[in-house]
Task: structure prediction
Amino acid sequence: TLDPIFESDSIVVTEETKKGTDLINEKRKGKDLPLLEVLVCPMELAEDGLDISSERIREGEIDREGKLYIKPDWLKRELYLTDEALPDLKRPFDKLLPELSGKDVLDLKGTIISVGDESTKLLLSLKVKPSVSVIDFKVARIKKFSSFSELGFSGSENVLGITNPPGTLSPELFKAVIQLLRNKTSEQTIVMIEGEDDLSVLPLTLASPLGNYIFYGQPNQGIVKILVDEKHKEKAKKIVAKFTTRGH
Result:
């Protein structure tokens, strides 16, 4: 049976993949087959003017329509929580686990991210090392911890200190998580928040490549385990769109 490429009479490519047709036609020529007609199709552009590609979708930058998950304005101005967005945040974002055990996390294939001091401490106690941990040394907005070692960190982690005031999403937070999650690194990073870490699950979901896992605490209910997929990224985007820049 012939390979499908040898049974075809034309091929659709982009400018970026056009070079491969020369090799294909050389192989066809060697089999005394007519050369393929090469049809060059322009790439569809995303909202930012760059190509829409499956890689960018997998990396969590854009959706299938080419829309950015993180709007450029969110990298410039502080966003403030509104009463409209509050009900969405009071509900578990994804699967709620009343208790967390090793079997819930040890076999996960994607990058693991933790939000909150208690969630981070619990994961570390289970011998799970999140790639990114967002903490503020507080529990329920009351200071509880004073050192990384109290949470179970070894001291070898990279520490990134940023400011994110209570009830807000700062441009600094968005930029930090984009940098951490899109630059592939094996180094564990602690994001130490001056202010409040409660809302950081939103930019983390929006910046994460598909297949990552985010764990955060749901007050008095347990731990929420988010599998980052297109559905959850769209959900996070809609919630952040309800925030305000206070008159701007």
In short: DSSP finds nine helices and 13 strands in the chain. The chain has a mean pLDDT of 91. The first helix runs from residue 4 to 7. The radius of gyration is 23 Å.
